[in-house]
UniProtKB/TrEMBL annotation:
Keywords: Coiled coil, Signal. This is Porin. Residues 28-62 form a coiled coil. It comes from Sphingobium rhizovicinum. Residues 1-23 form the signal peptide.
Length: 495
């Protein structure tokens, strides 16, 4: 392009000098002035071209550096030993609150002016000095569900709902401090979900950590640790929804996490969810989870995990009655119930995970058990659940497994629809079983699910699940053995 400009300038000068139709022949001084002006203009154009080309190279290289070599760049800047980046290429790169300290240092060590980088749906803003990073967050999950085949007409319903309708933000200050906040509006009211601040650093060349405090999402079970926008099915399995602290998926407290090349471990102590009740003590929940990848190659991986929690219940949370959905989230009548259970004083839950993937095929098995201790000398109550799930990507993607956290993330689609491609297509299957029969009025049930997921790009998906379920409740409106089918669909966008 530069040589073309030079040739064009010389041709213009030759044309001026050779054209006889000019009103008068320019003097030598005028020609010299004209040549000098042309040279200055060409120099200015060259400077602008160099700047534009430099920006284009930086923008094209930034996503690659963020996904593949940010830790290496940071170590070159800080003269640190080499550590392999913990994020797999088949998932969308994490935001400012989830990157490791080496990647955060890489951003701070390479300031290039105020920048805006477009990633999965929304931009990441960086300050000119590389110190401040900010990214908006959002999640829209729209569901429809229809149930048929039950012997109870009250269970044969068609419903719609918003599984999630979230807005939030995340960011960081320097390589160490980070924060995240999200609110959910899906129930037509404001519900604070994730809200924390944290600090990250390194213990050695191969081990880093973070500590976060605030309203925290559980690190518990494989599907229970996966966000609602990343689960391969429309709803998490019964291990995650039934073997759970009484306060649910969130609690206010502190969590420490440690990460190695092929493992992670977390420990947390939390109270209740965000609420306006301070007249009694909170329940206290201590929890841990760890996962290990003993086999980890470019296209295969083995996952082993374990988790547990222990909670001392508040005097305001002694009712342990539970009714767990098993035919999809948006049919509240298809549930397995414990019957009325009062007088709880504490619970302990634990579980194991075993699975992995090879190529586009993944398999995951989970099992969990929860023991509820009751007042008045009554015997403990045990809940038991297990599941086996699998999926296969027909379009060549690797499963969106995050080896840093031991959970699923957003997939990196190879051929997005918005670029004229076919997107990514995944077939899924799951069997799950839930048992509350340790109680006199407790029920049991199971569900078998077949599904297909179409990922239009890395942040947009369409999901379809067909569920055959069976329940056997001993209390409530729908007692006795009953079965039926539920078909559910979802359109989801995460940014």
């Amino acid at each position: 392009m530069m040589s073309s400009l030079l040739r064009g300038g010389c041709a213009a000068l030759a044309l001026i000098a050779a054209t006889p139709a000019l009103a008068q022949t320019p003097s030598a001084e005028e020609l010299a002035a004209l040549v000098k002006a042309q040279a200055a203009e060409i120099a200015a154009l060259k400077a602008r071209l160099d700047k534009i080309e430099g920006q284009a190279v930086a923008q094209n290289a930034a996503p690659v550096a963020a996904q593949q070599s940010a830790p290496q760049v940071a170590r070159q800047q800080a003269s640190e030993p080499l550590v392999i980046a913990p994020f797999a290429p088949q998932i969308v790169p994490p935001g400012p609150a989830d990157i490791d300290v080496a990647q955060a240092r890489a951003v701070a060590a390479n300031p290039s002016g105020v920048t805006t980088e477009w990633g999965a749906g929304l931009p990441v803003f960086r300050s000119a000095d590389g110190v401040f990073t900010y990214k908006p967050r959002g999640r829209i999950l729209v569901d429809v569900s229809s149930t048929m085949g039950s012997r109870y007409n009250g269970r044969n319903t068609t419903t719609t709902g918003m599984r999630a309708l979230r807005l939030g933000l995340e960011g960081g200050v320097g390589p160490h401090f980070f924060y995240q906040f999200e609110s959910d509006f899906s129930e037509n009211e404001v519900d604070i979900v994730t809200a924390f601040m944290g600090w990250r650093n390194r213990l050695s060349s191969k081990v880093d950590y973070d500590v976060r405090a605030g309203h925290l999402f559980n690190d518990r079970a494989f599907e229970g640790s996966t966000g609602s926008d990343s689960t391969p099915f429309l709803e998490r399995g019964v291990v995650s929804t039934a073997i759970i602290p009484q306060r649910g998926f969130y609690g206010i407290g502190i969590m420490g996490r440690m990460f190695g090349p092929n493992w992670h471990a977390s420990v947390s102590v939390t109270g209740d969810r965000v609420d306006g009740q301070q007249a009694t003590n909170d329940s206290r929940t201590a929890a841990f989870r760890a996962h290990w990848n003993p086999i980890k190659t470019d296209n295969s991986l083995l996952h082993v995990g374990a988790w547990g929690f222990d909670e001392a219940l508040s005097s305001a949370a002694t009712t342990l009655t539970r009714s767990t959905v098993i035919g999809g989230r948006f049919n509240g009548a298809v549930r397995v119930s414990t019957g009325e259970l009062l007088g709880g004083k504490s619970t302990t839950g634990y579980g194991v995970e075993l699975g992995g993937y090879t190529g586009g095929l993944w398999v995951m098995g989970e099992a969990g058990r929860r023991v509820a201790r009751l007042t008045g000398g009554r015997p403990d109550f045990e809940s038991k659940a297990w599941s086996v799930s699998s999926g296969f990507f027909l379009t060549g993607e690797l499963p969106p497994y995050n080896p840093r956290l031991g959970s699923f993330g957003q997939p990196n689609v190879l051929d997005p629809v918005l670029n004229g491609g076919s997107g990514a297509i995944e077939l899924t299957a799951r069997y799950e079983n839930l048992d509350y029969t340790d109680l006199v009025l407790g029920g049991d049930g199971w569900a078998a699910t077949l599904g297909v997921n179409w990922y239009l790009n890395s942040f947009t998906r369409i999901q379809l699940n067909g569920i055959h379920w069976r329940t056997n409740n001993r209390a409530g409106a729908y007692t006795g053995s009953d079965d039926g089918q539920t078909v559910s669909a979802r359109v989801g966008v995460t940014f």
